[in-house]
Amino acid sequence: MKLPIADGPTVRKHTAYLVREHRGTLIGLAVLHTVAAVAGLAGPWILGRLVDAVTQGTTAGYVNQVIAIGVVAVIVQAVLIRYAQKASMIFGEAVFAELREDFLETVTTLPLSTVERAGTGDLVARTTNDVNRIQHAVRFGVPRLIVAVVTILLTVVASLLTSPLVAVALFVGVPLMVVVSRWYLRRASPGYQRESAAYAALNGTITESVEGARTVDALRLGARRRARVQADLREAFAAERYTLNLRTVLFPAVDFTFVLAPVAVIVWGGYMISTGHATLGAVTTIAMYAFQLAGPVWELIFWLDEIQVAATSLARIVGVKLVDSDREAGDEVPTDEHVVARKVEYAYRAGHNVLHGIDLDLRVGERLAVVGPSGAGKSTLGRMLAGIHPPTGGSVQVGGVDLVDLPLDDLRRHVALVTQEHHVFVGSLADNLRLADETADDEQLLAALAAVDALGWVESLPEGLATGVGSGGHVLTPAQAQQVALARLVLLDPHTLILDEATSLLDPRAARHLERSLNAVLEGRTVVAIAHRLHTAHDADRVAVVDGGRITEIGPHDELVAAGGDYARLWKSWQQE
Amino acid sequence: MLVTVRPLPLPDPGTPPVTGPGALLWWLARRQWGILTVAVLLGMVTFGCQAVMPYVLGRALDEGLTEGFGAVLLGWAAVMLGIGVVQVAAAAVGHRFDIENWLRAAFTTSQLVGDTVARSGHTITDELPTGEVVSAVASDALRVGEVYAIAARFAGSLMAYAVVAGIMLSTSFQLGLVVVLGLPVVAGILAFLVKPLQQRQAAQREASGRLTTLGADTVSGLRILRGIGGEKVFTDRYRTQSQDVRRTGVRVATTQSYLDALQVLLPGLFVALVLYLGAHAAVRGEISPGQLVAFYGYAAFLSWPLQIATQTLQATTRAHVAAKKLIKVLSVVPATGATPGTSSAPPAGSVLVDDASGVELAPGRVVALVSVDPDESARIATRMGRFDDVAEAGTPVHLGGVRLADLDKDVVRERIVVAEATPHLFSGVLGEELDVRGGNLEAELMRAIMIADAHDVLDSVPDGLAGDLPEKGRSLSGGQRQRVALARAILTDPEILILIEPTSAVDAHTEARIAERLAEVRRGRTTLVVTASPLVLDHVDDVLFVEDGRVVTHGTHRELLHRPRGAHQGEQAARYRAVVGRSMDEPAATQPGEDVEGAHGTDHLTSSSPELSDASKGVS
User: Membrane-spanning residues where (chain A) (predicted)?
Assistant: First the structure.
């Protein structure tokens, strides 16, 4: 299952909303930048006045006056730019912070079933790559774009004011530039995205080679890994060559426009002077404006390109908001702690049922082991029993209420699931545990750790519970991470616990010891343990054998062994004594 | 006039000097001498054209316009247009050469890093963090390339500066001197101000990096958060850090806005000074109005070459740092096979002997290795596959009497394959990833999949054998990953196959099937399996039991199970039974505290590697 990506209209709607939200600030910024840009037009104007003055004869006093105006204009422009840039960047920071915080909030409220099925890879990519990709556009792009547009418009206006007849010559190259820029911008985004994808693939290849260096050596995969790097570089080169070819068209077309413009101004301006419609100074001013326009126009094209790329990232970020809720909480309250599954069916793809009408009546306080071959549907059954996915057929109820009708906070107090997943969060070990119960004190945390046999290693940590763990901190072994996950469950203390291979990363003997001490703490709780080690089954009150999406055998260990079915055969071969 | 860029990557990246960053950068430059020279020439043409433009404009105004509309004006206009066209063409072609220079250097270094990683084995991870090696390709290689891309513009800038200085000094010595000496002062002041900005930018990048880590951390653990709660704690934490980033951003904005303002103010005042001096000179009749325009143009234009000079300086510094990091990666020496083998290979069917433990693999036997400490048996098995030549000096392993370290490494890897407890699955087409030696037919792949009982994998991967396996086999469950790795190892079909805990993450049903089929397919082929699972032990020809690093007894699994305590080596057999026994009544052999220690010591030998974990993703 893939997470949605917003379409064009949705992204535009979202952007329009952002603009509306900040209309006041945006207008203020535009005004500041406009005034700054006006001051920036002084240079060529002064030059023109001086040229005229010198040609017509003037005094040193007049020159000083004009220069003084210029100096004032430069100082005013500098001061305005100081405020305009600062305000724009602060605005960009604020909008971007709002955007990313809003995004993370949405992500953390995604429906359980979406999180379970979409996997975390795509979400991590959106949280890191996509958020980072739009930051450049929001922080710098939007302000620079405003500046560029304002500067271009004002320069044109100033030229027209100086001498409308001469200024017409400025536009001689514009059709060519517009046509080529549009041609370029349509192709640029996919081109640059292909480039970053190619480099991401190369980095991925190197990461894999490094992380799997041992396997590369053992299986003599060196030549393959080299070939993979070559292939990635070939793709990167093809992507680079494509964008290079695009630029080979764009650059000369735009550059040529700015070569043509001053030449046209001089020729046409010369004609206008000869007919008495313009002064030498006016022509000089407009010729200088023609040179000055190149900067903001290049900036405009560059940012349009960047903003297009950012828009595709924004589509992925806004897309997360489009996930529909998978359940609607009702207000029924469970009457007891009795969990019952009736005729449960589940299909990840329509028509491919993984579970075929499972009936399971969990006795309150019992310990049920679920065994069976890989792919039999054990984990899916576990998720149904924990209320993660709404079943496609049948129902799972607690105290007479469908699990998926319970508000999430209530659901967690009734049933909780721990899987093999052993992510350790960045923070202290205590932080990692308090997720389950914010109010727990250190005593309670240590008791929970003791229940999962973890006290020994926790006490030997440099700072005990306060030790920083997770990425960049003290590295917990996968087995220790599993113990932390189980300790969390002890703190959460629901009446029914689903453990899906929750001790599989411990060595068999430690796992068995852990299960025994955990059982002591969970006395009276209902525990469903999905396991591949048969000692778990041996120690349980009942054993359910799942095969092909059905429960084929269920009963106490001794009875199943005596019955001589599948389980008995398996037990014998495993036991061998 | 497209200039064809020579395809990259080059077939052979060559052998770089790793003596120092300067040597590496020079070596790269020499390898692309030709295109570097062309790029530099084109850069000089481009900048030369730009440099003379204000001069031509001034002449056009003076001579063309003052004499009225006519041939002279059109003549100067044609000259401007001509120079402009040359400049545009040179810039476009020059850009292609700049990019080619950049790519050539960057790709060559990336290739070199790729080659190093492909042959280094575990030494690379022993010596450097993964992130550092990846950033060698992701950023260092690109940084090194930048120097060669900017070289042309730098050369052009130098020339433009010289040309403009020449023209100005000859027109008006005083004014020329002000421009030529004044601008570097302005550029120097601006460059000086860049330092605090860069510091604040670095602080923001760091805060931003922490935020990204935090976001990724939250999302990676989202299943846990959604399962048991705590989302609020994490969104609050993210928000706090996000606001922290915003604040560092505001600090950057403050410095940046001053710099932006100064970038307008200083050159602006400088131009005003030039205009002031120039206008007075013009009033006195020392220079013409056109020359005044030209001076204005020079003053405005010259800040551009100065900017490029500053950029070049920064790029060179960065490249130097990057080259230093690259050298660290490129000078990694593999732990095995760093030098060619000295002995010729013994004939096929030779005995493989580990001297220290006394483990002997006789040709054609399927043998299991059992130890109280699973780490110990894994160590012995790994040793027999030669993974560290230095260490082997102390614990020699002989194949047909020849020390493994004296053999050609390729021969050892060809004949002996060790599949470790935490094998790595690579992304790619499933069929190709299974068939690492190549040349196996689909029927053979299917047979290996059957032996490893991995049929379900073909359903989990869309398109089966032709489907794509994601990085680390992430879409598979822990058990599935282990079985894929086992099928891969079986397909290498070596003379001697060593498997370490090949079935630790699979359920008993599956393990029973694999054990039987594995023993059958390796029947008559030398095989060593490190395991303590009775399901597997029951199917092997011989079981070696190791204590304190030495084989203390051996026999078939059944014989060892039933050997009386009083018999020869009966005590050892009893201890063997304690290790492999599944008796439910037998108390845990160690105290709880030690038990947990045991969990640390052995967990990488059971199913605990990251590759073999999160089974929950296996369905969908």
Answer: 26-47, 59-81, 142-161, 167-185, 249-271
Residues B508, B469 contacting (CB under 8 angstroms): no
Cross-chain CB nearest to B228 (options A59, A119, A412): A412
Q: Among A107, A504, A534, select the one facing B219 at the smallest CB separation.
A: A107
- pLDDT computed for residue B3 by the predictor: 63
The number of residues making up chain B comes to: 620
Class of A8-321 in CATH: mainly alpha
Rounded average pLDDT over B586-603:
36
Residue of B nearest to A258 (CA): B84
- Report CB contact under 8 Å: A435, B610: no
Q: How distant is the alpha carbon of residue A97 from its chain centre?
A: 14
CB pair distance less than 8 Å for B620 and A489: no
Q: What SS3 class is residue B364?
A: coil
**Residue A449: per-residue pLDDT:** 93
Q: State yes or no: ipTM above 0.90.
A: no
- C-alpha distances (whole Å) from A23 to each of A27, A29, B206, B393 are 6, 10, 31, 75
* Per-residue pLDDT tens digits for B147-188: 999 999 999 999 999 899 898 899 888 888 888 888 888 888
Residue ranges, comma separated, of all CATH 3.40.50.300 domains in chain A are 339-575
User: Amino acid letter at A408?
Assistant: L
**What dihedral do alpha carbons A429, A433, A439, A442 form, nearest 10°?**
-50
Cβ contact A345:A380 at 8 Å: no
The confidence score (pLDDT) of residue B300 equals: 83
Cβ contacts of B496 within 8 Å, gap of 6 or more: B352, B361, B415, B416, B417, B526, B527, B528
Map tokens 């602006």 to a residue. Answer: B268
* Distances in whole angstroms, Cα of residue A318 to Cα of each of B208, B225, B583: 21, 22, 57
A272: closest chain B residue by CA? B69
The residue of chain B with its CA nearest to that of A435 is: B230
Under 8 Å between Cβ of A408 and A325: no
pLDDT digits (tens, 9 = 90+) for A517-567: 888 888 889 999 998 778 888 889 999 999 889 999 999 999 999 998 888
CB atoms within 10 A of CB A280: 23
Report d(CA B568, CA B566) in Å as an integer. Answer: 7
Contact B272 A202 (CB under 8 A): no
Interface contact flag, B230 A470, Cβ < 8 Å: no
Got the DSSP string for A157-202?
HHHHHH-HHHHGGGGGGHHHHHHHHHHHHHHHHHHHHHHHHHHHHH
Q: Residue B599 is nearest to which of A241, A510, A538, comparing CB atoms? A: A510
Q: Convert the pLDDT of each residue in A54-71 to its tens digit.
A: 888 888 899 999 999 999
Fold held by A339-575: Rossmann fold (3.40.50)
| Cis status, amide bond into A508, omega within 30 of 0 | no
Average pLDDT, chain A: 89
Strand order in the sheet with A526-530: A415-418, A496-500, A526-530, A367-371, A542-547, A550-555
Q: Which domains does chain B have, with CATH numbers?
A: 21-172+287-330 (1.20.1560.10), 359-618 (3.40.50.300)
| d(C-alpha B230, C-alpha B211), whole Å | 18
- Judged by CB atoms closer than 8 Å, whether chains meet at A213 and B117 is answered as yes
What is the per-residue pLDDT for B550? Answer: 95
pLDDT of residue A233: 96
Comparing CA positions, the residue from A349, A393, A283 lying closest to residue A51 is A283
Q: Which residues of A touch B60 (CB under 8 A)?
A: 266
Note the pLDDT of residue B618. Answer: 33
Cβ B130–A210 below 8 Å, yes or no?
yes
Report residue A405 as tokens: 């009708």
Q: How far is B26 from chain A (nearest CA, A)?
A: 23
A309-319 mean pLDDT: 87
Closest-CA residue to B528 (of B389, B351, B344, B337) = B351
